[in-house]
Every structure is written in structure tokens, then in C-alpha cells.
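Hypothesis: this fold can be encoded by more than one sequence.
Test: take the C-alpha cells below, design a sequence, compare later.
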């Protein structure tokens, strides 16, 4: 099963964690300054070393990937929207499990990404560094004694590492404590944003925490800081959920109403499914909704997304047909044993 359908540590609150390492290769200018010939040579060098890296990584040129598949990768959070829309030649290295996806030739020469379900930044970092070392054995990275790894964006110099945790926070939202918690996170020097890129309207209950500082601090400290603040948010979210659970009937009514619409509607927009599933996941995690499990909820969210739905069906639908098919898929997944 792919990582985005699995459960991990603290999965009732943390959807997934990600670690990325930004690297640039000596002998080439930054991506935005590369000539066409330099870019071609660079991409060929990465393609050449890919089989020797291991991890079942495969090289794919973005120009050879169709638009639906690109959108699928965006919806799975494997590539950002801006990367899929770049005019210059770019590529990705990805494995079958899709927990590793290396962006090649984007804003940096290489962005090594590792994804894990739940809260597990430590293991994500270890795997990212292992891949990093494998690549560095064959391609020398640009490194400065004072500034660390050199990046096109000066804000990423130093370790070049960013860690992310993506959290589902309906308890804090419903109890009107979310803004307060966001302020606390920001006061600890972290960045809090919506889960998705600007092209996708994000769920108002899902937020992403990442580090601001990459220089003058070790990778281990970065990861520890993110994990510590994430654990604090988890604690507050669970307290909020416990408070909501005091009014048992009202909470059960709310989540079961959403469940009822989700499995009985004849057509559904993605925005509707996203909000309904937020309620349903809350009900499932709290043991109120017994008809579903977390894996089914994850499958529903995945196949509610337009490109993933179209890819699964292998057909082209108009807008109304997509909404009808989306509703059918929600029923099928819910009732599957």
C-alpha cells in the first residue's frame, strides 16, 4: 500500500510528515540561469546515475508525462503546482511506493523528498540523508564552509533541510482555538500554511507546519523542534476533541449527518467531499462512526480528487459526470469489505 493510504504514529491528528533536502550540483549555474545545453547535460547526468542509486527509483522526464498524471502527482502532494507548469525541461525520480520523489531541475537542481504517514520525521530524515549521500557519491554538491549547502533561495542555505507535518485540526477549529494555536506555532519560529499549493482550495481544517531556519542549526535540531511543536499541537487538538465529546449527542449528530450525505448523495463536488470527510474522519478517530476505518477515509479523499478519479476510471468525464462518479466511488469504498 502506498504511504498516503497507510496509518502511522499519531495518525488521528497527523496526516503525514515530509522531509526535503535542497541540493545544487557543482559545475552548473542555478536552474534559472542554466542555458538549454547546460540543462540538457545536467538532466542526462542525473538520468545516468539513477539506476545506481537504488531505492527502486526511476527517472521520468516531465515533458513525457501527460497532464492528467501530472495533476495526479500534484493532488498526492508529490510535486508542487509550479514544478508541473515549468516551461524548462525538468524530471522526477520516483519509486513505486511513491514515498520518495526527487524533483530535478526545478527551483533547485535537486529537491529530495521523503514522505511518511503520521508523525515520523526522524525516519524520513534518515532516509532522505541516505539518498543524499548516494547522489553525492557521484555528483558533487555546492557547499561553502560558512554558508553550508548553497541554494538558489538564500533562505534555504545551510542544511537545505525542511521538515513538514500536515495536521487535521477540526477540534481546534470547532472550539475556536485554531487562531490562538497558529500564533503560538509562529512564535516558536515555525511557518504555518494551508496544505496545498495556490491552485487547490485547501481544507480549512488541515494545516502544514514547517521550519523557518535552515542555517546555523543541525538537521537533528530542526527535526526535533518541529516534532516538539507538533506534539504540542496534537495534545491541544486532543483536548479540544475531548471537550467536544462532552456533548456526545451533538457531536455524533454532526459527524453522522456528514457520513449520511457522503454515502447517499447522487453527486458531490470535491469541496463538499473534503469537508464531509473532515467530519467523518473526526467521527472515525473518536470511535463514533464504526462503519469506516482510517484507510477507507484516506481512499475516499484520494479518489475524490478529480485527476485521481479520472486516472482510476481511465475515462474522460464532464463536470457533472465527475460529480456523479465521485458520489458512486464514495459509496463503493464505504461498503467494500
Amino acid at each position: 500500500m502506498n504511504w498516503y493510504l497507510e496509518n502511522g504514529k499519531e495518525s488521528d491528528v497527523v496526516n503525514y510528515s515530509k522531509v526535503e533536502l535542497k541540493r545544487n550540483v557543482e559545475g552548473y549555474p542555478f536552474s534559472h540561469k542554466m542555458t538549454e545545453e547546460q540543462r540538457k547535460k545536467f538532466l542526462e547526468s542525473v538520468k545516468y546515475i539513477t539506476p545506481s542509486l537504488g531505492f527502486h527509483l526511476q527517472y521520468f522526464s516531465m515533458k513525457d508525462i501527460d497532464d492528467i498524471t501530472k495533476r495526479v502527482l500534484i493532488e498526492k502532494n508529490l510535486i508542487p503546482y509550479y514544478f508541473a507548469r515549468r516551461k524548462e525541461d525538468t524530471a522526477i525520480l520516483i519509486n513505486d511506493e511513491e514515498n520518495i520523489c526527487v524533483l530535478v531541475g526545478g527551483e533547485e537542481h535537486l529537491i529530495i523528498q521523503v514522505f511518511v504517514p503520521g508523525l515520523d520525521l526522524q525516519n524520513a530524515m534518515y532516509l532522505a540523508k541516505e539518498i543524499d549521500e548516494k547522489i553525492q557519491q557521484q555528483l558533487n554538491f555546492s557547499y561553502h564552509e560558512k554558508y553550508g549547502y548553497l541554494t538558489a533561495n538564500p533562505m534555504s542555505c545551510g542544511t537545505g533541510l525542511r521538515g513538514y507535518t500536515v495536521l487535521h485540526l477540526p477540534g481546534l477549529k470547532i472550539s475556536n482555538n485554531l487562531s490562538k494555536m497558529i500564533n503560538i506555532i509562529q512564535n516558536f519560529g515555525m511557518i504555518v500554511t494551508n496544505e496545498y499549493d495556490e491552485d487547490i482550495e485547501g481544507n480549512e481544517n488541515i494545516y502544514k507546519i514547517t521550519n523557518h531556519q535552515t542555517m546555523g542549526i543541525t538537521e537533528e535540531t530542526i527535526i526535533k523542534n518541529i516534532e516538539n511543536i507538533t506534539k504540542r499541537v496534537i495534545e491541544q487538538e486532543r483536548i479540544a476533541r475531548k471537550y467536544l465529546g462532552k456533548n456526545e449527542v451533538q457531536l455524533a449528530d454532526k459527524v453522522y449527518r456528514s457520513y449520511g450525505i457522503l454515502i447517499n448523495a447522487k453527486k458531490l463536488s470535491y469541496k463538499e467531499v473534503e469537508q464531509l470527510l473532515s467530519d467523518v474522519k473526526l467521527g472515525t478517530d473518536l470511535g463514533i462512526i464504526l462503519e469506516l476505518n482510517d484507510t477507507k477515509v484516506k481512499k475516499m479523499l484520494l479518489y475524490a480528487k478529480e485527476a485521481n478519479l479520472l486516472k482510476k476510471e481511465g475515462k474522460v468525464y464532464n463536470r457533472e459526470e465527475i460529480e456523479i462518479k465521485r458520489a458512486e466511488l464514495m459509496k463503493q469504498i464505504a461498503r467494500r469489505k
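The mean pLDDT is 94. Strands lie at 14-23, 58-61, 91-94, 100-104, 110-117, 143-144, 148-149, 161-168, 190-194, 206-211.
Hypothesis status: open.
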